[in-house]
Design goal:
The chain is an alpha/beta fold. The protein has seven helices and eleven strands. The longest helix has 14 residues. One of its GO terms (molecular function) is methyltransferase activity.
Amino acid sequence: MTFYEDFSKVYDQVMDQSLYDDWLAFTKRHIAKSSKSIFELACGSGALSVLLAQNGYDVTALDISEDMLKLATKKAKSAGVEITWMQGDMRYLPPFAKFDVVTCYSDSLCYLSDLSEWGLAFEGVYSLLEEEGVFIFDVHSTYQIDEVFPDYSYHENEEDFAFLWDSYKGKVPHSIEHQLSFFIKEKDDQFVRKDELHVERTYESAEIVKMLNSVGFSCITLFSDFTDNSPSKDSARWFFICKK
């Protein structure tokens, strides 16, 4: 699993910021109006956590990367909101308070190495939810991984950094390898190159539902691409709504 060590330095500059509004809107449509507490897994730089807090939710957010949490803390302070930040691994969630809602967005589960690790995360989430609580997450579809990502290339050149993103078919079914290269301007005006390999893997939706059922989720609905529509054969992103 990547820790986004160098990616964190340019993450907000290369990430499509409008997606956070989409995740916020999707979340609000699919949780009870009485929901108060939200646990955000893999919160990254905290953009969605801040939006949730600004919308009146009591937010706790977890990420594996200390660098990302530093960015998130600064973002929350600038926005004037209170959020409980936790560093940790979604596969090994600690006993904690119960929550009305748990989210895990931005295909974060796809960074886990196999479906058994997804199961560990699902078990932890189930234990964190209140009775009738809701778990919402998204993942890449098999179409996105198998047909869209291979040979994808994205390059960005700014005054203080350059960012190269090239994707290649992975070594196991429904997997992709993203080769990231950063050229980051240091205080002495010299550029330093850093490289990271990000490996993602997804599964057939039926396999994911089966794993969710095995840990106790019994009411599962599947949508696609930030809409309330069922997935089609060329949907890029699957959204799962799971009720405890």
